[in-house]
Amino acid sequence: MRELPSSQLDPRIKSVWRINDAIWIVISFLCCFVPFAIVAAVEPASWVFMVLAVEAIVFLALLVIFLIVLPPIRYMRWRYQLNDDFLDIAKGIVWRKRYVIPFIRVQNTDTRQGPILRAFGLSSVTVATAAGEHEIPGINTEHAEQLRDRAAELARIAREDV
Length: 162
Fold this sequence. Notes:
Blueprint: E1 7-8, H1 13-42, H2 46-77, E2 79-82, E3 86-91, E4 97-102, E5 106-112, H3 115-119, E6 122-129, E7 132-140, H4 141-161
Antiparallel strand pairs: 1-2, 2-3, 3-4, 5-6, 6-7
Helix pairs in contact: 1-2
């Protein structure tokens, strides 16, 4: 089996993942917790308090898993490498995925930057093919723009060679 790609994401992506996951976990928790809290306020019953306690325990467990345990592991498993002929992406913790995208198939390259990525000075590079999009998240914005431009240039060269 081929070695993993050599380039890693910017370490600040772990903080971005933590913030993003925390937002989604809190929103989900509130959507589940608030209705039962209203029921408990209107008509107190022991089963409602049990449900609230279970939801709180699940909420805390999810926070620990997604904010402490997973980001370093996810960061270690995320790799990419830009070669002259293809883009190589490896990712995944349990289900590991490896994408080798030949530049002859690349249709479009983009950079994206949401508010959380922007706050950390990071961007994502997206490479689109007919089969779908492949994203490399959490790269320094300047490096992301260079990577996007280099991938677009290699795709243009690959199309000219055919």
